[in-house]
Amino acid sequence: MRHINLDLDVLRSFVTGMELGSFARAADHLGRSTSAVSAQLKKLEDQAGTPIFRKAGRGLALTEAGETLLAYARRLLDLNDETMSALGGGDLTGNIRFGVQEDLGETLLPEILGRFARAHPKARIEARLSRNADLLRRLASAELDLAITWGDYTGAASTGVSGEHLADVPMRWIGPANPSLIEKLPSKDEPVPLVMFEAPCLFRTAATEALDRAGIPWRIAVTSSSLSGLWAAAAGGLGVTLRTEIGLPGHLTAFDATAGLPVALPTVPLLLHSTQAQQSPAIDRLGDIMRESLRQPLAHRRAA
């Protein structure tokens, strides 16, 4: 069997074009001509042995084979970049304090810590998994060097803390995968039971505002101080909550319009913060790993 070696340079053009939404922008970003990137994509399709693009209106979309190739291309590029970082940056040292909110912690934190520790064993990380309000407070007092937080959605009170915008993530109503566990959602007789964090919480505010605008009565059925508590209460059918689909456990589901809940929900910005005026190489590299670790799940949510 003849093995075909995919060209990482070609894969980088492919991935960059899909993430930027335009291969012309990808060419500009990578310092290439548009015709050169087009030739790379033709080469990639020839190597794949099957079409990876299909016509979609006036543009192009990925075929099923193209979606598969994109997922593997991201993994290959991440491994390549991690390898080169380990070879050239194994001597990075220093202490780094970084935080992430609970929604991202279970899936994102192990990947970030593992990738960084393998490449830079001499650097030390102090990680904090916490609620958004606590992370913002610690950023304001410079107790963290880096953090990923939720930002303000339209209508929310300003936190006064800005950061690098990574994505706008849709809010969704979350409940048990078996919706029969919740007998009544919107009802003339019973208010919608809500499972929420203790105030202040931007998702709690967004949920009650959306229900009020729709004229749907509600009540706080369960108040929790932890995300695991929210998931447990929602899975047990005690009520619905409002979060994003990032990090959503398999035994829970995002409801669609058939549930009768308001579908005109805001998006919430995801931000990467740095509190260091002059970044150290170790902090810079950890920030890069954070962006790379979020890239695939965020791209999946945008595609959905």
UniProtKB/TrEMBL annotation:
InterPro entries given in the database record: LTTR, LysR_HTH_N, LysR_subst-bd, WH-like_DNA-bd_sf, WH_DNA-bd_sf
Keywords carried by this UniProt record: DNA-binding, Transcription, Transcription regulation
Annotated Gene3D superfamilies: Periplasmic binding protein-like II, Winged helix-like DNA-binding domain superfamily/Winged helix DNA-binding domain
Signal peptide: none
Pfam families reported for this sequence: HTH_1, LysR_substrate
Domain HTH lysR-type: 6-63
Domain of life: Bacteria
Family recorded in the similarity comment: Belongs to the LysR transcriptional regulatory family.
Protein name: LysR family transcriptional regulator
Species for this entry: Labrys miyagiensis
